[in-house]
Amino acid sequence: MTSPRNTASGTAPAYIDPHLAMLARVSGRTLLWIFLLSVAATIVPFNPRSLDWGTNLSNRIVEALSFAFVGIAFLRFACFLVPSPDPIEEPEQAIQLAVQRDSAIRLCRLGIYALLLLSIWQGVMFMQSLNGIDQERTALASQLSQHITQTEQSIRQAPADQVAREWQQLKAEQPQARSQGISGPEQQRQALLKAFDDEQKQFRQNMTKEANQKLFSVVITTVRRLAFCLLFILGFQALSRRLY
Q1: Lesser CB count within 10 Å: N end or C end of the chain?
Q2: CA 163, 169, 171, 172: dihedral to nearest 10 degrees?
Q3: Per-residue pLDDT tens for 169-188?
Q4: For residues 38 and 102, is the Cβ–Cβ distance under 8 A?
Q5: What is the domain range of residue 187?
Q6: C-alpha distances in angstroms, 52 versus 6, 62, 81, 133, 166?
Q7: Which residues contact 90 (CB under 8 A, 6 or more apart)?
Q8: Cα(116)–Cα(194) distance, rounded to whole angstroms?
């Protein structure tokens, strides 16, 4: 059995195969390369001003973060699979092990800084998404207002025979209009205006509902990314602690 003193000092147990450290380092580097290649494939074509580009890149980073985290964890784990050499008797081995441990810690800190920048970027993209939703809603509202004005003016200025044709078409499309007892041209004109007004009210409700759904989707997606960033920041912070 391994003595408590050896365990506390960080010395690896004698029965651990020395090839395990090599396998852990190879696995860690492979996972890091997978993460980097996955992110690099999304960066091209480079277009940081595009909201869609930023959204796709953020999603790719969050989805591939587990590769980077596990890879760095393997590198940290590999450092503790190697027995700590005596710095006096084996100075080169001691320096090499110290460099490996410091490199793994630096990777953890680099991950923390990168995720902090990613979190700030999520706030910027969130504001851009809100502006985009507001601009789209404003543009639709302006088009709708112009359409309403033109249509109402056309109905008010339409001759009686055209109003009668439009009324017959409305009754064919909406059976409930047949039971209103409307016969005269002016009554038909007012009924057409009322039907058009009801249609526009329904369209406005649908437009508001769609905008709220887009806003809810943006909020949920942003919160999800920030939650993942926070969890991985805490994980990298735990991995970066010096245990020797």
Answers
A1: N
A2: 170
A3: 777 766 665 445 666 777 87
A4: no
A5: 133-221
A6: 54, 15, 44, 14, 44
A7: none
A8: 55
**Phi, psi at 198, each rounded to 5°:** -60, -40
pLDDT digits (tens, 9 = 90+) for 78-120: 988 877 766 677 778 788 888 888 999 999 999 999 999 999 9
Provide the sign of the torsion angle of the four alpha carbons 139, 140, 144, 150, taken in this order.
positive
What rounded mean pLDDT belongs to the chain?
83
The C-alpha atoms of residue 84 and residue 164 are separated, in whole angstroms, by 97
| Residue 71 · residue 36 · CB < 8 Å | no
98: number of CA atoms within 13 Å, CB side? 9
Assess whether 164 and 113 both reside in one domain: no
| Tokens representing residue 13 in the block | 């147990």
Distance set, CA 80 to CA 28, 67, 99, 124, 243 (Å): 14, 20, 13, 40, 9
pLDDT digits (tens, 9 = 90+) for 120-163: 999 999 999 999 989 888 888 888 888 788 878 887 877 877 77
- The number of folded domains in the chain is 2
Note the helical H segments in the chain. Answer: 4-9, 19-43, 51-79, 91-157, 160-173, 185-239
Please give the single-letter amino acid code of residue 86: D
- Name the burial class of residue 79, with classes exposed (0-12), middle (13-18) and buried (19+) by CB atoms within 10 angstroms of its CB: buried
Are residues 28 and 108 both part of a single domain?
A: yes
